[in-house]
Amino acid sequence: MAPKPPRAWQRMLSGRRLDLLDPTPVDIEIEDIAHGLAFVARWNGQTRGDFAYSVAEHSLLVENIHGRMFPKAPLKWKLAALLHDAPEYVIGDMISPVKAAVGSGYGDLDARLTAAIHIRFGLPAALPKTVKAQIKRADKVSAWMEAVQIAGFSESEATKVFGRPNADLIEDLDIHLRPPVDVRRDFVARHEELLCQL
């Protein structure tokens, strides 16, 4: 008798059962994404403050920065910026050195989940390269801010790793760590706001 394959699905709080090896858009709910991301810590939790800096908070910041960098971008790309790390609601936020050690398996899993999430919310399964690059630029600005403000990097160290952002772009942006329930609520609200405007 052949051994039973390992379980590759996760039960979500919405009641959905998400198959990580074959995710389908019908099994994806924004409330599950927001909840998961609000409780996943960036920087492996190595940040200052009374709360972890969550992927949901990071995603809200990246979407804000993306909007500042590309104010004429279509709303669907703003939504893509908000959802740029959405797969991490089930696979966690793996820091770059760990991703490099794990190899291509992580990237394949991330790509499958991203495609299902994008389709669920009306985005193309794979973003155009130019859009992906724009979101990555906003992501690097966010990473620089996080590194300096809450992760213990000096400005020069953060600049070597992420590049120095334009000071005018981030002049009035500060990172404030908040309870996960507040971040979850704001993530869902911003998602709904963008969908209503599409």
SSE topology sketch:
Layout lengths: L8 E3 L5 E3 L10 H9 L16 H15 L5 H8 L5 H4 L4 H7 L1 H17 L8 H21 L5 H8 L4 H4 L9 H18 L1
Antiparallel strand pairs: 1-2
Helix pairs in contact: 1-10, 2-3, 2-7, 2-10, 3-10, 7-8
**CATH C-level name:** Mainly Alpha
Query: How many helix segments?
Result: 10
The N- to C-terminal Cα distance equals 52 Å
What's the architecture, going by CATH? Orthogonal Bundle
Taking all residues together, what is the mean pLDDT? Answer: 95
CATH topological fold name: Hypothetical protein af1432
Biggest sheet record: 2 strands, antiparallel
Class from secondary-structure proportions:
mainly alpha
Report the strand count: 2
Looking at CATH, the homologous superfamily is Hypothetical protein af1432
Rg to the nearest angstrom?
A: 17 Å
**Beta-strand fraction estimate:** under 5%
Helix content: 55-70%
Protein name: Metal dependent phosphohydrolase
Domain HD: 55-143
GO molecular function, one term: hydrolase activity
Keywords: Hydrolase
